Amino acid sequence: MASSPEEPAVAAPLSRERRLEAVAVVLWPSFLIAAVETMAFFATFDPLALYEHAEVLRDAFSPRVFGYSAGFFFFWVFTTASSALTLFLARSSRLARTGMPS
Predict the structure, then answer these.
(1) What range defines the domain where residue 48 resides?
(2) Could you tell me if 92 and 10 are in contact, meaning their C-beta atoms sit under 8 angstroms apart?
(3) DSSP E strands: which ranges in 25-66?
(4) 47-53 long-range CB contacts below 8 Å, 24 or more apart?
(5) Is residue 87 part of a domain?
(6) How many CB atoms within 10 Å of residue 34?
(7) Is residue 67 part of a domain?
(8) Are 74 and 16 in contact (CB under 8 A)?
(9) Backbone CA torsion sign across 74, 42, 26, 85
(10) Largest CB tally within 10 Å, which of 22, 26, 55, 89?
(11) CA separation for the pair 9, 60 (Å, rounded)
(12) What is the DSSP string of 66-86?
């Protein structure tokens, strides 16, 4: 039975291949952008300067390596969220226009 314009379209579950593709589409660009953001940020700020008031962290970790790693993962989390939101909105838009999941 065809859905009428009043009925909301229901997306079919994605196949395993489509889910893996969606994960790759979100994670790979966010990884690349996080790497660029990390380079740009730490070209300006020294991790040792950021640790001046964090004695516990300074004693527990090698400050520069930990700073670079923490900064990278911080940027990666936010760029992953941005990419995932973009994918969600693009799919929602296509579903609303065509009634077919992407």
Answers:
(1) 16-98
(2) no
(3) none
(4) 47/71
(5) yes
(6) 20
(7) yes
(8) no
(9) positive
(10) 26
(11) 53
(12) HHHHHHHHHHHHHHHHHHHHH
Task: Give a yes or no: residue 10 inside a domain.
Answer: no
Quick: pLDDT tens for 87-97.
998 888 777 77
Instruction: Give residue for tokens 């953001």.
Output: 37
Tokens of 98: 């065509």
Asked if residue 11 is part of any domain, the answer here is no
Q: Which residues contact 84 (CB under 8 A, 6 or more apart)?
A: 26
The pLDDT tens digits for 13-46 are: 678 898 899 899 999 999 999 999 999 999 998 8
Choose between 51 and 102: higher pLDDT.
51
Domains: count for the chain:
1
Position 24 scores a pLDDT of 93
Phi (first) and psi of residue 40, to 5 degrees: -65, -45
Of 63, 67, 64, 71, the residue nearest 34 (C-alpha): 71
Q: Which residue has the higher pLDDT, 11 or 83?
A: 83
